């Protein structure tokens, strides 16, 4: 960690002065293809898991990539941690969409558990499922266990009894974005619709708290509402406890971390591959209530998150944190770039993420 971290994705700033910039390559000189990813720290190494994206198109042709590093700068390709299945009938067969992979280690079982957003082959983004795989070693290979919707048949803990008892006339809500439709979304229109089969899960992350409890944070209800669900002690299922936050807020790409006794979450709006103004939230309990704050970014391009979209916050010793984002290139997603920036705190204790062309942890 004594090397300078050179931030890639600098075209956000450097295009203004006409300078060129290079891509981030691994120790073998190959482009790092690990998008929408997250970092696992284990055994003196960092493991970066991310989507292997194709040069053209957006379906998954390879699987989830894994890289390792001891300094967060120089990365070795460890291989494909979870490959697509050669079996056509498999839920993770070639042609599915595997996004936002995150890995956490379970000290009780000794297993490494991988969760990811899964869309089934030839169904676009209709399935909105979460996939789960396990391994005995950090880099894998991981064994696909199953995919699912979240907590079928169970209401969120913070959904009121009157809202649980609502009976919806769906013909009244075919037109989106009307005041009546917005009110219905807030009251649980899509929660009720998906109750039997389980809640939708698209952009997601995982978080392990100080007490070892783990949580799945994901964009649900047609990307309109964030939900937070507690995982079982083995991190391979749900306890049935979950909440919904900011119904109708249209948040995705959640990245969460804890500083002291405060939980912080950074998300993006829903504008496809185009960058937008990030959002920031805080809470003194994982179960809320959550409060929204202005975005934490400072510098040219801050109002569009420097051209990136949040994917993960890496927590390091001594209260250091790294914000990670993807700078998407929809014409060739393989070559989408990365932004890594330190998170600092102002005098009021609010997170601040300032643009830096290069930096190293203090």
Concise account of the structure shown:
The chain has one domain: Glycosyl hydrolase domain, family 43 (Tachylectin-2, Chain A), CATH 2.115.10.20.
Characteristics:
globular; 362 residues; Glyco_hydro_43; Tachylectin-2, Chain A; single chain; 23 strands; 5-stranded mixed β-sheet; 4-stranded antiparallel β-sheet; 6% helix
General description of the model:
The chain is mainly beta and 362 residues long. The protein has a single domain, classed as Glycosyl hydrolase domain, family 43 (Tachylectin-2, Chain A), CATH 2.115.10.20. Helix content is 6%, strand content 41%. The protein has helices at residues 11-14, 161-164, 179-187, 189-194, and strands at 5-6, 35-42, 45-51, 63-69, 76-83, 97-106, 111-119, 129-135, 143-148, 204-208, 214-220, 225-231, 238-245, 252-259, 262-268, 279-283, 291-293, 297-298, 309-316, 320-327, 337-345, 351-354, 358-359. The strands form six sheets. It has a five-stranded mixed beta sheet with strand order 18-22-21-20-19, with no helix packed on it. It is globular. 40% of the residues are buried.
From the alpha carbons, calculate the radius of gyration and give it in angstroms: 20 Å
Output the CATH homologous superfamily. Glycosyl hydrolase domain, family 43
Sheet bearing the most strands, described?
A: 5 strands, mixed
Number of strands: 23
How far apart are the first and last residues' alpha carbons, in Å?
A: 10 Å
Oligomer: single chain
Q: Major sheet: order of its strands?
A: 18-22-21-20-19
**At the third CATH level, what is the topology name?**
Tachylectin-2, Chain A
Number of structurally distinct domains: 1
Low-confidence stretches: 6-22
Shape: globular
The proportion of residues in beta strands is: 35-45%
| Helix vs. strand class | mainly beta
Q: Helix-strand pattern, N to C?
A: EHEEEEEEEEHHHEEEEEEEEEEEEEE
For the record, what CATH class applies?
Answer: Mainly Beta
- Report the mean per-residue pLDDT as an integer: 93
The number of distinct helices, counting runs of at least 4 residues, comes to 4
Helix content: under 10%
> Which CATH architecture would you pick?
5 Propeller
